[in-house]
Amino acid sequence: MTRLSGAVRGVVAVLVALLTVTVASTTARANADPVAPADFVALRTVDPTILQEMRYFTPHNFVGERIDGYRQPICILTRPAAEALHKAQTNLLSRGYTLKVYDCYRPQRAVNHFVRWAEDLNDEQVKGEFYPNVDKSRLFEDGYIAAKSGHSRGSTMDLTIVRLPATPTRPYVPGEPLVPCYAPQQQRFPDNSVDMGTGFDCFDTLAHTLDPRIQGQQRANRTLLKSTLEKLGFVNLAEEWWHYTFKPEPYPDTYFDFPVSARSLAQRY
Q1: What is the pLDDT of residues 209-240, one digit of tens each?
Q2: What's the CA gap between 169 and 193, in Å, rounded?
Q3: What are the CB-based long-range contacts (under 8 Å, 24+) for 236-239?
Q4: How far apart are CA 212 and CA 97, in angstroms?
Q5: Integer angstrom CA distances of residue 245 from 58, 85, 159, 173, 210
Q6: Distance (Å, rounded) from C-alpha 218 to C-alpha 108?
Q7: Can you give the pLDDT at residue 9?
Q8: Is-catalytic flag, 240?
């Protein structure tokens, strides 16, 4: 066999080294993200009938752009929370309604995105819809934004009720005229949910679940959601009619940061 010259051997060694570094770098990037614990599931695998309108995957939210960590528009929850939500859905289906989730598990990197946005007082591109009456400098003090979120523990969700048969919600068009989230239902951004008195993620006291100004059918709709979920172990956040946490939480003190994607679940196996 012809022996390689020293120069050729040197070139080969360099190429091998470069290939090794490239493969290692690619592997490291592929494995850089944390993955979900084994008892986290995609809601659709537990109940495919629950509607999903994952707002933070879209620009239609109080930041005005897709939020960090939302790589797919899917709802991920701890299995106990998902199974309890399935029971609630069964109850509502028998009454001519369906649940719709806006947000479920939320990675810490998404919460960090909220914090960075809240600290930038010059970015108010969607103020007219989501917080028209709130000075952005008060978002932390008033409790609308925090450095940690219960959503990151995996058993909290934001949701509403839709009357069947459900008609799709039209897509949001960035830059379209904004209407306050507390305006009458026929005036604010169209949503196929029943009238809850405000839109989702409305930074206003009218969004408080039991605000006395919310009466009639709007109050009845909030009560239907609340009573249905509370019977199954869910606890409402009093300041947000859409916000519920299943108790007891499997991870009451852990804030996860795996991305919202099917890959975060698939990589466990």
Answers
A1: 999 999 999 999 999 999 999 999 999 999 99
A2: 9
A3: 236/209, 237/209, 238/208, 238/209, 238/210, 239/143, 239/207, 239/208, 239/209
A4: 25
A5: 23, 11, 11, 31, 17
A6: 33
A7: 55
A8: yes
pLDDT digits (tens, 9 = 90+) for 23-68: 344 444 445 899 999 999 999 999 999 999 999 999 999 999 999 9
User: Considering 65, 119, 176, 240, which one is annotated as catalytic?
Assistant: 240
Which residue, among 54, 38, 50, 55, has the nearest Cα to 85 in the 3D structure? 50
Structure-token pair, residue 8: 């050729």
Segments of the chain scoring below 50 in pLDDT:
1-4, 7-8, 11-30
The pair phi, psi for residue 158, each rounded to 5°, is: -110, 130
If 0-12 CB within 10 Å is exposed, 13-18 middle and 19+ buried, where does residue 88 land?
buried
Instruction: Determine the Cα–Cα distance for residues 51 and 89; give it in Å rounded to an integer.
Output: 10
C-alpha span between 172 and 169 (Å, rounded): 9
